[in-house]
Amino acid sequence: MSMTETVKGESGAMKEEVFSLRDVSVYYGNNLAVDSVNLPIYKNEITALIGPSGCGKSTILRSLNRMNDLIPGAKVTGEVKYHGEDIYGPTVDPVQVRKIIGMVFQKPNPFPKSIYDNIAFGPRTIGMKGDMDEIVENALRSAALWDEVKDRLKDNAYGMSGGQQQRLVIARAIAVSPDVILMDEPCSALDPVSTFKIEDLMNELKQSYTIVIVTHNMQQAARVADRTAFFTVSSDDEAGSRIGVLVEHDETDKIFSTPKNEKTRDYVTGRFG
Amino acid sequence: MASSLTRVPNRAGAAVAGARATVRGGFVKQGSWADVGRAAFVGLMMIALSVAVIAIFAILAWAFVEGRTRLDLDLLTNGPSTARRATAGYSVAIVGTLQIIAGVIAVIVPLGTGAAIYLEQFADRSKWYNRLIELNIQNLAGVPSIVFGILGLAFFVRGPFSWGQVAAAGSATIALLVLPTVILASREAIRAVPSSILEGSLALGVTRWQAVRKQVLPAAFPGILTGIILAISRAIGEAAPLLLVGALTFVTFYPSFFEGGFSALPVLIYNYAGRAQVEFQILAAAGVLLMLVILLAINSVAIWLRARYERTW
Fold first, then answer.
1. A-contacting residues in B 8-47 (Cβ below 8 Å)
2. Which domains does chain A carry?
3. How is chain B split into domains, by residue range?
4. A100–chain B Cβ distance below 8 A for any pair
5. What are the pLDDT digits (tens) for B147-197?
6. How many whole angstroms separate alpha carbon A177 and alpha carbon B270?
7. In 10 A of CB A114, how many CB atoms?
8. Residue B291 and residue B270: Cα distance in Å, rounded?
9. Global confidence as pTM
């Protein structure tokens, strides 16, 4: 199936769907964690996944580059289509998926190596062609880190501040030239100044990449995201289970000003969550 | 994870569990009685530690006082002799021990780390055979060394391999004896590498093997070396299994690995120590110090490597 789907955006321009999720459910063992998510993610936009703890937003994020495969017993049903191709298809190599769809984690996780080697590890290991010094410099420039570290590329990455480490990790993801960057609460361990820098960076990066971000911080979603998807927990008290569901998704402005669903309104106005 | 470790019946396992309990204890909020309990626990630990340290130093001090007159070149260059007791030495036993240890290292480094990598990173724990392997390794770590001696006798000296009473048989037997320790310590070291390092690597689109080889293993390297150091230390002092696979005492020629009778330091020390003549008693004490020096020399390479790669998270 070759169908790069497009829809009409607000301005009338055609928007390309990078991901389209259809009835995506995630199970851990026999427990349903997230139920039937239908969600489009558009090219060169920032899509934020928000919602209270346990609503499955991180689980959905990790199903976009098959990081869930690493959790024993995790199972994804439904279709996660990336440019029309199901990334859970039988012929798909998860390693290739992760090469195209990069990820940044909650806590900065630089490798215990030099700044240079942190960036070079990915390109070197997957056998990217080109001048390594150039790849490293470009990645660091894209992550707005070059000027801060160009004189200490051989220093250990653990000597950097938390915010710098997180930008290093973003540069590391950029270095393997992905198409999409997934960010799992990238600022939750950072101070406000570092958070501002990362948000600024995200706005830069969406020119070249498609970004999906999970965040606990509603203001952050309102500040950076073009589209926002609100998840919540539907708890079945009799069965004692907590299942994540997608309540609604729309352009960020609409989610925060005129949400269709009452639960969304309660959440974005701070009445619960 | 915890359940698989609490079953470990050997010394290494106790050390591992103790270390973990100590670390975890620091994070638990406690009342005043718990504080008293903790102080008592720390006190007991300090007493236990000092008993162990004092005992070691007492033995070393005794060995030095007793054997100091024989810390000469003859100790290294001369073989055993009943006729020239005052100048007899350990030359053949030193060569035998070095051969055995070299063989042990050649076996335990690839096999021990390989098994640990497989069990920690690749084995599917829901499969019964992987659980069986794990259980067996833990049990083997607690099996007395003499039992491994019998295995070596039946398996390497006679039986399928039929190498005869040679250094190779002793080496293989001791390698099997210390292998579980290496595997358990290496697994612990691999497990101690934060999973964020593995995840971060995989998220870049590298294969699991590439991530393990280039990120997890180098980070776990110091811990793995600790396991190897402990294993070598135990291997060098083992006498019982060597006696069973036919280590001799009065060998007057240098053995080759697969041919001819062999001797080893602990076997010879054991033999000298049991003799009535005072010269042999002195020689045994000097042998203890000699063995310690050789052990430190071998391990210093590993310790140097470990210091080079050691880092904190």
1. none
2. 6-268 (3.40.50.300)
3. 70-309
4. yes
5. 999 999 999 999 898 998 999 999 999 999 999 999 999 999 999 999 999
6. 65
7. 17
8. 12
9. 0.81
